[in-house]
Specification:
Length: 263
């Protein structure tokens, strides 16, 4: 006998990622859309989430509150929305996957406190390939040490509200830890002088409908190593989020990472 489908709630259900997640849930027999949420003042509240996603009626209305039997929640909203969702999930004992970015340090701290009550996975990027890029970038930084000039370039669609991307910041943190540097420079302008040893440059491009590109450049004298990931659409992120939801369901309360999923 097959296992019952996993009941999934999507917060940020009318956003680009939310819509794609709902479409992919419908294509996966092991998953069921149990709740579709968005901000409490959303003009489409009460309308069928399937219709809003172009699938036809699913019998799941767009809601501003978490209700009904839910096994795991996925959040792709905004920091304020993610904080409200974490509070609701903690109160109801629902594991939560968070792909939202742009948290300030205090918001991040509040988010992580929910892991005392629920299984919580927060990642700036839920793509398996991007998380492999992070691992490889760390290995390259450790191998090359401070002999390389490290620069990170990210490119996203012009709708993205935060910059640099959470993924770029995480990449900077990883390579910075590997070489013992926290000298992050966000772009350069004017007579900045010779590039100091240990500096890590981070550059954000916003163009068209680009779903996301990240490149870590290790510049040496006479040669250069570049590690890159290019998203062709949002499916890599969405499928990674669904993998994370399947992994997290039924897990004990604590803070998880994509490294736990990838092993």
């Amino acid at each position: 006998m097959s296992s019952p489908a996993l009941n999934v709630a999507i917060n940020g259900a009318t956003g680009r990622m939310g819509v794609r997640l709902i479409q992919l849930i419908q294509a996966d027999p092991g998953l069921r859309l149990a709740a579709a949420l968005d901000r409490p003042d959303h003009p489409k509240l009460g309308e069928d989430a399937g219709t809003l996603c172009g699938l036809g009626p699913l019998g799941v209305p767009l809601s501003g509150a978490l209700v009904g039997p839910v096994d795991v929640a996925i959040d792709f909203s905004l920091p304020v929305g993610a904080l409200a969702m974490a509070k609701a999930c903690a109160e109801q004992g629902v594991p939560m996957v968070v792909g939202t970015t742009g948290f300030d340090p205090e918001q991040r701290k509040i988010m992580e406190e929910a892991s005392a009550k629920i299984a919580l996975l927060i990642s700036p990027n839920l793509s398996r390939a991007v998380n492999l890029l992070m691992r490889l970038a760390g290995e390259a930084a450790r191998a090359l040490g401070d002999s390389a000039d490290i620069e990170i370039v990210e490119r996203h669609h012009h709708f993205k509200k935060d910059a640099p991307s959470g993924t770029a910041l995480r990449l900077a943190e990883i390579v910075g830890n590997a070489v013992g540097s926290s000298q992050f420079v966000h772009g350069r302008q004017g007579d900045v002088g010779e590039r100091p040893r240990g500096e890590i440059g981070i550059h954000a491009l916003r163009t068209g409908d680009n779903p996301g590109e990240h490149t870590v450049v290790f510049g040496l004298m006479g040669e250069c190593l570049e590690l890159s990931h290019r998203a062709l659409n949002r499916d890599g992120f969405a499928l990674g989020a669904l993998d994370a939801a399947k992994f997290l369901a039924g897990k004990p309360p604590r803070l998880y990472t994509m490294a736990d999923l990838l092993g």
